[in-house]
Amino acid sequence: MFSVYGVSGRLFRGSMEHLRQIGPLGAVARAHHVEPIKHDGREEGFVPTWADTGAAALPVDEPHRSAVAAYTKTQRGEMHRHPLRRVDDVMSQPVITLSNQLTVLQAWQQLASLHIGQAPVVDEAAVLVGLLSRADLLRPERLPAAESSSVAWRALLAMSVVDVMTTPVPSVAPETDIRRVARVLLDTGLPGIAVADEQGQVIGFVSRSDILRAVVTDPPLDLWG
For helices 104-114 and 150-157, what crossing angle results, to 10°? Predict the structure, then answer.
């Protein structure tokens, strides 16, 4: 189930098919942040060779394989293995949100300090009102010209987040099928969708990266459930 929220509250609630009929939503270019990679997705117990590491080949005897497998398991931690089907299986929690009371400068500093490219914007009741991305803030038509005075730049940084965020924006219920969320992301061009409860309060965020991570990691994404 999907909803659309703006500064005046919920504007729509319905299925993905009905959402696609209400017209295009504002697309947001994605600002990328590269996270450190802990492992490269190879099979458990894989022993790198000289060609992989640039060093001498490691022993490939069974005790060594078992040791590597045991170490890998400790790095992953305990994980309840089940196919991932729903949004709440892959969404990011706790969710990072931006207050609609922030200025552009304050919002930029928060996004940069947390190393994220976008975040839902919420009102005083934690209800979704929009989405802000660092890419939004860097759109050429929004930035002052190079020859502009510092006054123009200060005016931009002092603007309210509400004046520059994407709104209205869709949200999704936590029990929604992941494939439907992927379809909406493709349709809208958005980098992610806020996960909201019945009252519109943001409880999570699902991004394209979250879905891609579910495809390539264990437990696997259930593509056919």
Answer: 70
